[in-house]
Amino acid sequence: MVQHEEMENLLVNHFQNLLSESILDRLEVIDRITRHIPQLVIRDQNLALVRVVTLEEVEEVLKGLVRNNTSGPNGFTIEFFQVT
After folding, report:
1. What pLDDT, on a 0 to 100 scale, did the predictor assign at position 71?
2. According to the model, what pLDDT value does residue 72 have?
3. 70 three-class SS
């Protein structure tokens, strides 16, 4: 079992090294790792997923929700969201 002081030194060294590494080193590591992850979402799909939602889109979804039903664990009914 590692002693408390030894563990403390290991953690301090770890974070000092982490915070002092250059951004280029980090980007290189990220690139090496992500090369092995299959790309399931193409760039255009990703842009569509992260785009800003319009007020009209939100209103359209709210109008199409089933009444007298809660939308999730917060307990608010659909009517609450439709009114606000």
Report:
1. 62
2. 67
3. strand
pLDDT at 38 (0 to 100):
87
Check residue 49 and give its pLDDT: 92
Cβ-Cβ contacts under 8 Å for 66 (sequence gap 6 or more):
78
- pLDDT lower than 50: segments of the chain: none
Q: Can you give the C-alpha Rg of the chain in angstroms?
A: 24
pTM beyond cutoff 0.85: no
Instruction: Write the single-letter amino acid at 53.
Output: V
Closest CA relative to residue 81, chosen from 53, 52, 73, 71:
71
Find the angle CA(70)-CA(74)-CA(78) to the nearest 5 degrees: 30
* 62 within 8 A of 53, measured Cβ to Cβ: no
User: Is residue 13 within 8 Å of residue 21, measured between CB atoms?
Assistant: no
The span from the CA of 46 to the CA of 39, in Å, is: 11
Domain boundaries, the chain: 1-39, 52-84
